[in-house]
Each structure stands twice: as structure tokens, then as C-alpha cells.
Hints:
The structure holds three protein chains of three kinds.
Chain A: H1 2-20, H2 26-45, H3 53-77
Chain B: H1 36-40, H2 45-73, H3 84-120, H4 128-151, H5 164-168, H6 173-200, H7 213-245, H8 258-292, H9 299-312, H10 328-356, H11 365-388, H12 390-396, H13 400-430, H14 436-463, H15 477-507
Helix pairs in contact in B: 2-3, 2-4, 2-15, 3-6, 3-7, 3-8, 3-13, 4-6, 6-7, 7-8, 7-9, 8-10, 8-11, 8-13, 9-10, 10-11, 11-13, 11-14, 13-14, 14-15
Chain C: H1 25-60, H2 62-70, H3 74-100, H4 103-133, H5 153-185, H6 190-221
Helix pairs in contact in C: 1-2, 1-5, 1-6, 2-5, 3-4, 3-6, 4-5, 5-6
Amino acid sequence: MRTFLALLALLAVNVALGATRPFEQVWLVELGVVAVMAAIIVLVSMEVRREPPLVRLFAGVGFFWAAILFGMTLTDYLAR
Amino acid sequence: MSSAGTLHGDAAARDPHIPPPTLDRPDDYLHAQSTLRSWFLTTDHKRIALLYLASITAFFVIGAVAAGFVRLALVVPDGAIMTNDTYNKAFTIHGVVMVWFFLIPSIPATFGNFLIPLMIGAKDLAFPKLNLTSWYVFMTGALFTLVAVVLGGVDTGWTFYAPLSTAFSNTWVLPALIGVTIVGFSSILTGLNFVVTIHTMRAPGMTWFRLPIFVWTHYATSLIFLLATPVITLALILLIAERAFHVGVFDPAYGGDPVLFQHLFWFYSHPAVYIMVLPGMGVISEIVPAFAQKKLFGYRFVAYAAIGLASVTFFVWGHHMFVNGQSDLASLAFSALSFAVAVPSAVKVYNWTATIHKGSLRLDTPMLYAMGYIGLFVLGGLTGLYLATLAINQHIHATYFVVAHFHYIMVGGTVLAFLGGLHFWWPKITGRMYSEPWGRISALFIFIGFNVTFFPQFILGYLGMPRRYATYPPEFQLLNVLSSAGSTILAAGYLFPMVYLVHSLWFGRRAPGNPWDAKGLEWETASPPPPHNFAGVPRVPKVPYDYPIQAQETGRQHT
Amino acid sequence: MSAEFIGANPAEPVGVTRAGHFATDAQQRHAATFGMWAWLLTELLLFAGLFLTALILRLLHPEAVQAAAGHLKFWIGAANTVVLLCSSLTMSAAIELSRLGWQRMMVGCLLATASLGALFLMLKGYEYHADYEEQMMPFLARRPYALAEQPATRLFVNLYYVATALHALHLFTGIAILLGLTWKASRPGFLQRHQNWIEVYGLYWHFIDLIWIIAFPVLYVVNR
């Protein structure tokens, strides 16, 4: 239940920021909020904190591999 | 050393629904049940491996026939033998079928499925029903692709680059894309099964560093299956959406970027070539110690190199895109990292060579293929370094140099490893010995035919002949004719095993449990194995590759 | 030594029936959970490609993407996010109840989860209908497109459809499997034989929620 309320609160923050757009770089904050929400879902709702190290590794490696995809592709688009 | 299984098996472990074995119907996995249902609804990893073996052989033939069309057309420089459209369809079908329906499943789905539970001392994979599902998914994808071929073919090349594939090609691109998307799920399910099995189902005492290298390389391959395949699934979904609905993200006419497709495509397709290479390395790592009767040199290095390959391979995909408009920074990064990825492969080659050194060599068919593999893989790999060099790439990108490079690795490497493994484990899988003289003759035909076909292509590429062109300057004709002639020798080499291996099923000498005196748990059970693999709990050896020759640094031999 | 299937200890209120190729219950549970995480790994990378495309579009056409994002139905998207968060709550409850052995309440929570998922799909359908009415479906060649004077907006809008449709497909499949699972889970003796199925399925449901938690801001929020 606390998890649910925390997620709801973070969502409210993002909705408020999205509706009001207080400053130019607000997207940084919004994506930060998303990262926190994702971490809560993975660690708490999906109980990764309680799983053995192997499962923890596989839960995390997908994000790391997506980062490779993003990072190396951005070496192209950011430097054109 | 036991013969083909005890007659009555382990009574307590026998499935009560199957009648007890008799003298003329042994109780190995091949003969325990013989209904169609027991094959097409099997969950036995060994039978599923044979389902895959039959399918990929059929697709190999289709892909080879397509290649035959290509080599036939290239006998003349002016494209007189077939239309340009037919030529484009021939090389596309060759690529699509060979990559996704032969090379990628070849070793993992046949030998991986058959051997991994045996090698780790398990009764089956972690998810046997998922294993069967993966074969049906594979066949569904194949069906869509074959529909595309039968309806008239595809002409975009196996790389399906946009906007040709999405906006301009008027061939059967959609069913082909759907077929390839579906077959990707088959790989994912296989990889998932292998990863979970290797982590959770090793026999008591089978620690990671007692595993055969075959298992390590399949583990690494399975990681690539899981991490890379979804990205091409997404790329193909976007391509399908683009072709069907003009989504536009890859179309410059709408402001989209075709290079984005290439990033998504090659993020998978470069690691995919390591899916094709790593399992072959696993096969070689089993054959070489057995036929040198010598412990694998540098076991831990070879194991770590497999994981290293599977990791670094994800950082190099842009080397397929040096001339396509990506930034210089990206090209530099991808080029440097491509040099790095050669290192783990080289480590493995050095270790195999060191294993052969001062070994007690027997040049039986599997070892002939293994040694051919090592030489041809080195040639193919070294030419990759030329391609990774930015300045040189400008001149040889999209020429026959590239074609020769990857065929040296895919055919000179993977296909030779597949055939070597097929001969090495044939006694285990079928309980029969093949004809050794014919095995050696075929290996020779394949080695010679292969080099006559593909070495001229390095020269052609260096001289500037582009790939995927139906016509070429007349001065290149001699080398092209030589290449096409070589392909007929190669074809003969492929045909012979199809005859003598099938012949051995009825007329081959019955195989003992361990005809090669090889090490590994698969050789500790009968040939063919019983349905549940082992009669009891297998005894895990304390040391892997515990061959008679355990060479020390001084070169002293221990027998 | 052992029969093909080993029934759970009747003294235990919840457990698993061990399949013949596993040596222990713990091994089977671990393999199932680990297998689901391996599958979710692939799903994450599938959607990662979509999010990358969204990022690249933003880099290539910043004004067009901003204009397109402004026309998306922000409040329906936000409401749908709340719906999915609620469904994750009910799914977590179902998991806890399965561990306690409270079968009837667990089935109720599973049904609530499926209903909330269906509510999401209904809201999504309503949203697509509204998009159609407002001429925000550039992939329909015969229909005029509201932002036609900024051609690059089509890219982001079309991407929005691909992304949300793919997510909706996963959700739909998830609901279908959930209903099948709920049916089996309502049979007597289910929790003695297959309790971990609820946990393993729950991982998938939470993951679909996770994808939407990322997709909603990426599509609807950050580009406004």
C-alpha cells in the first residue's frame, strides 16, 4: 500500500510538471521521477530486493544493455 | 564403454505407459516410442534436437539452391542468364534463409538442445514444453518466409534496408518480414531455456569451471539471443508499420532517417554473427582435445573469452555503417572497439593450437573439420580487421571482399564446425558409426571447394567488384567463373554426407558408448542415450578434459 | 526412487507440484522466477528500441515533436497511468494472498486486476477514437491530418501509435492469460499445486505497468 501511494505521489508530481511546464529543462526532472518510479517497481513491487544475486543481476542487466543501445547510437546523432 | 543400453533399463524409472523393451526394440530415446504423436508432441530435448536437425537441413538446401542461382548468374558478366530482378531475389533469399533459418539455429538448436542436458548431468532442459514450442514457432516463421519465396520472392537483400524495403520494393516484403520477426521468438525461447538450465540444473558437483567449453559458449550465445533479438524484433515491427502504414520514421521524404533503421538492425545483426560463431567455437573446443587426447589448453581463458565475446560484440555494430552517413565520432568509436573484439577470438585460436601441439593426433573426420575451421576462421577473422579499418573500409565496403570475409567465417567456420560436430556426435545421437573414408573424402571436397569458391572473391573485392550487382566488368570474369566452379565442388561435398550419414542409420556399425575415448558426461551414457539421459545420478569428473595427455609448461607428458 | 510427479505435502497449504526433471521444489521455483526475468529482459529491450526512436525523433525534429506531443490526450494518459498503478496494487495483493493460501480473496484480486486492465484498454480505445475524430491519425492516407503543415509531426504521432499499440497488445495478451490463470486458480487444490504461478505471472503484470510508467512521460509529458 505504501508503495502504491508513493508511486501515485510521484505520478502526481510528473503530471503537475507536465501540465504547468515551469521551466525549460523540466524534462530532466520528469525523467528523474520516472527513474525513481521504475526503481520502486522493480525493487519493491517485483521484490528484486529479496531475490538471490542471480535474479538481481538479470533484473539490472536489461537496463544496462539498453544503455549501450542508447549510448552508442547517440555517438552518431549527437555528433553529426 | 557400455554398449547400446541395457535391455531392460532401470525398472523404477521406466514410464509405465510404454511397454517394456524387447530384444529387437531397444529402450533408447529413439526407439522408446515410435508414433508420430510421440515425435511431434515430444518434450524430450533429444527428439526436439532431431526435429530441428531435419528442418535446418531442409532450409540449408533451399538456401544453397538460391546460392546456386547466384553463382550461375555470375558466370557471365552481362547478366544474360537471368533478369536483374531474379538475381536480386536469389541473393536475398539465399541470405534470409541461410542466416535465420540455417546458421542461427544450426548448432544451438540441434547440438545445444541435444547435448546441454547431457553435458551438465540433467534429465532435460528447464522448460521442456517451451522447447517444443520454440520449434513450432520456428516452423511458423519459416512458413511465412517460404510463402514469400513461393509467391515470388523478395529483392531487398537480407538486410531489408529502408527506404527500399518500405517504399520502393514491390516484392513480397511483408510476409518475409513477418516470418523473420516470428522466427526471432524461437531463438529467444531457446536462449532463455539454455540460460535457466545452465544456471539451475547442473548435476551435484558440476561447478562452472568443470563445464565443457561447449556449455560456456552456448551460455554466451544464449545471452546474445536474449539481449539482441528483441531489438531487431522492434526494428522489423517498425519496418512492417512503415511499409503498411507509411509511419515515416525511416523515410527521408517524411523527415525520417534510414540510418536509424540500420542502428536498430545492426545492434542485433552484429551480435547475431557471434550467435553464429560462438557455438562453432564450442564444438571445436570439444573435438580438438578429443582427437589430440590432450587437455584443452587454457580452459579458463577460453571460458572467459566466450563471455568476453558476447559482451564486446554489442559495442561494434556501427562498423557495418561507416560509409552510411553516421558521425565521425561514432565511426571512430566503433572501429576501435571492433579491433578489441578480435582479441577474445584470437585467444581461443591460440588455445586450440596449443592443445594440438604435442598431442596424440588422430585425423578422423571431426578433426579434419576442426582443423579446417581453425585455418579458415583465422583468415576470415583477420580480414575483418581490414574491414574495421576506417580508411580501408571506404574502398572495400559493399564489395566482394566483405562477401568473402563473412563466408570464410560462416562457411569456413560455422558450417565446418556444424559438420565436424555432426560427425563427432553422430554415434551418440544415432547409435551408429558413419563411413570414415567417405567422411574424409567429403571433408576434403568441402575444404577445397570452399577455398576455390571464396578465395577469388577476396581478390575481386580488392579489385573493386561490388556485391549484389547482377553484372560486372568483363575483366573480372575469370575469377567469377573460378568461384562458380568451386561452388560445384562444394555442393558435391555437401551432398555426400546426406547420403552416407543416412545410409549409416540402417547399415552403419553399431556405436559403443564412447567410440572416440572422449571426455564429457555425454560419453558416459549409452549410444543412443536412454530417454532420461542417465541410468542414475551421473558422476561429475573433478576436472574437465581429463585426457591422458595433461601437458605442463615444461612439455612433460602425464599418461 | 521417485514417481514422475511429486504431489505437494498435504500438510502444506501452498506449494508446487514438482515436474520430473527437477530435483527439488526450490530448484523448480527458482527456475520459474529466473525464467520469467529472462523473458522480461527481452521485453525491456524490445521497448527500449521504441524509446530510442522517440529520442532520436526529438533530436532530429524538436519543434515538430513538441507540437505533436501537445496534441496527445494528456489527461486520458494520466488517468490510464493511475488505472495501471491500481491494477498493480491488486496484483501485489493477489500474490500476498496466494502465499497465505486465501484462495477466494486471491481470485477476487486477480479478477480486479483483469478488470482494471480492461478499463485501461477501454480508455485507450476512447482515446484512439478521439484522436480519429480530431484528425490525428496521419497513417490513414485517405483522412486529412490536423498537423499537415508541419510534416515532421507525423513521425512522432505515428510512433505514439506504434508504441501504445504494442503496449496494448502486451496488456491484452496479459489479460487473456490472467483470465485463464484465474480460472485455473479458482479450482480446488490450485494453491497446493501451483502457488508460484501467481508470483511468476505477477512479475509480468508489474512489468507491463513499468513499461507504461516509462511510456507515458516519454510520449505525453517530456515533449510538451
